[in-house]
Amino acid sequence: MNDHLDVVIVGAGLSGIGAAHHLQNTFPGRTYLVLEAREAIGGTWDLFRYPGVRSDSDMHTLGYRFRPWTDAKAIADGPAILDYVRATATEAGIDRRIRFGHTVVDASWDSGTARWTLTVEHDGTTITMTCSYLYVCGGYYRYDSGFTPEFEGIEDFRGRVVHPQHWPADLDHEGKRVVVIGSGATAVTLVPAMARTAAHVTMLQRSPTYIMSVPTVDAVATRLRALLGDRRAYTITRWKNVVIGTLIYQLSQRRPAMMRKFIRAQTVKQLPEGYEVDVHFKPTYGPWDQRLCLVPDADLFRAIGDGSASVVTDRIDRFTERGLLLASGAEVEADIVVTATGLQLLALGGIRLAVDGREVPLPQTMAYKGMMLSGVPNLAFTIGYTNASWTLKADLVAEYVCRLLRHMDTHGFDHCVPVPDPAIDARPLLDFQAGYVLRSLDRFPKAGSRAPWRLGMNYAQDVLTLRHGRIADGTIRFGRATPRGVDSEVLAGPAGH
């Protein structure tokens, strides 16, 4: 573990396994390790164990570009996705390069050696290792705790309160009255799944969310596989879904009234006649100002239609012994309350960065192409799309990192660092109005007012920029190892805002 490595990848989830695959395919002789804080491959898909856990994106875009998704279900459940990620790791031998239970807490760059020194916690001890390039693929939320608001009287409740991020293995909801607090992707997944065996499930929401039904099986993909084979069918289906998703997003941004009307019409068709659609399924914000929730084969609407689930739109006043007292004065009784109230974000997995002995405050850095930090050499990170599948962006970032490393090899460089123009104005990294983002965005790096300092949210545009664009674009400075401190003002300087 004390040997020097060419690359250290942090995280063995969807992004980390994909990054390792790209890296070893491009550079078979390069040394690397994947450091995973938990004890298993899979990241999100190993962590979340709640009933019905599934993707909220189709697997033809959530799957890796290099490994076709061949299962009939385009909207896949958590175990199927976990199997896919683990099979990818095993088949490529990546699983032998993973060190589990290894948490990176500090990373310190030294210009004199052009190396990172990592401080890693493992099994109650602290170890160090060095690497030439650090690639953080741990996502952007905390794995050890989800977000739960302060609820008055929660200690009075005689039932059980659980958060989806920490689902108890012994929780039996059969025949129980369940209240799911929330209206996001987790809530709309939980409600129909639990409604199959619960006495009744109530989705208690403060305000509505846009929800659309999609088919579990992509009929076009199935037909294409029969005609063209897995790989060619996968590529065509992937681009088909990218185009459809982009069209929906662009129409939502440019013609919000039209998309509101369209989504409402689809919702009305799925619900019983006379249902109060405008009370429970008419958000106050515009389509795609927050993530659009997808439900496979209208399962949420069907559960509402058959009476096994219901939606209540109201504010919580307090918990009571029997359930929840609402602002309207109504009380919803429950045996189990599930707080599907969101995530807590955590930038770069909480790793503390330093460059030539100087701490790097993340909010004072600026993100180059949404994947590197101003003033921080030889570091990349992955943040996926908020308006499309995470892996679409993760694949492109991995391809870009490989292109960047090849460029450095070709020209004899051992470090690179993005340096912004001081005239660029700072912007929030994520232009997204979800509560879990807004709560933590001030602790993240900034974006810039113009390219290449914006976090792109258009896959087709990013394909041109990240897969085919120039590496030496005048913004990244390349160099060779220098005596300690020579470049420290450049490397650890402010973000230019």
Structure notes:
Its EC number is 1.14.13.-. It is an enzyme of class 1 (oxidoreductase). Keywords: FAD, Flavoprotein, Monooxygenase, Oxidoreductase. This protein has 14 helices and 25 strands. A hairpin with a 4-residue loop joins strand 4 and strand 5. The chain folds into 2 domains: 287 residues, FAD/NAD(P)-binding domain; 186 residues, FAD/NAD(P)-binding domain (3-Layer(bba) Sandwich), CATH 3.50.50.60. By secondary structure, the protein is α/β, with parallel strands linked by helices. The C terminus is likely disordered. The strands form 7 sheets. Strands 1, 2, 3, 4, 5, 6, 17, 18 and 21 form a 9-stranded mixed β-sheet that branches. A 5-stranded parallel β-sheet has the order 7-16-8-9-12. Helix 5 crosses helix 10. The relative contact order is 0.15.
Question: What would a concise description of this structure say?
Answer:
By secondary structure, the protein is α/β, with parallel strands linked by helices. The protein has helices at 14-26, 44-47, 59-62, 78-91, 185-195, 219-228, 230-254, 256-270, 277-280, 299-305, 390-411, 435-438, 459-468, 488-491; strands at residues 5-10, 32-36, 98-100, 102-110, 115-122, 125-136, 160-162, 177-181, 200-205, 211-214, 293-296, 309-313, 316-319, 323-326, 331-333, 336-339, 352-355, 358-359, 367-368, 372-373, 379-381, 415-418, 426-428, 446-448, 476-479.
